[in-house]
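ok so i was messing around last nite and threw this chain in just to see what happens. nothing serious, just curious
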Amino acid sequence: MIDLHYWTTPNGHKITMFLEETGAPYQITPVNLAQNEQFEPEFLKIGPNNKTPAIVDRAPADGGEPISLFESGAILMYLADKTGKLISKDYRTRLETLQWVFWQVAGLGPMAGQLVFYKRTQDKVPSAEARFVKETARLYRVLDRRLIGRTWLAGDDYSIADIAAFTWAAPYDLFEMNLDAFPDVERWLNAVWDRPATRMAYEISTGYNPNVVVPALPRAA
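result:
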């Protein structure tokens, strides 16, 4: 059983998508960021960075004491290795998968997140806005180029790379990204959204937060 300490953010969606996709047993402990529950001492024991998600695995593969992990990329890697699912056993494909997971956690997530934060602030600095918008658009272009002629981001199969990137690319309208400029991203977003586990993960999120951003997919014709 995986204890998932979770809120309805893109990083939180990554873990519910994985767990729903693989059928791994889990239970959710909500950590309401709007109520600052991420600063509670009990949560800090497993999430010292004050951010969700975090997990506790009470049945780790080595049979030892429970393992706690924070950071969504690390959690995805751990769960993929533990279950043997959504990451290739082929050495080169595994590396390909991990590099795209790290691309998301180091680039698309932080930049798109800063763009949303900036749009909600009262103090506007044109040069800052241009930086966030241009860099987010550049990252969408990187993703679009990668997906030309490919169904999934890494190898021939759906993987944790797709999960990681999807949750941050899917709110394109929140970032004011026009998918007309990124046709292969749009095709891929629709393919991930069509997976029942993806839909279920977002359905779960609405039960905790009725204001959660649900992907506007597919786009209206």
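not much to say yet. The helical segments are 10-22, 41-44, 72-83, 91-119, 126-147, 160-169, 183-193, 196-208.
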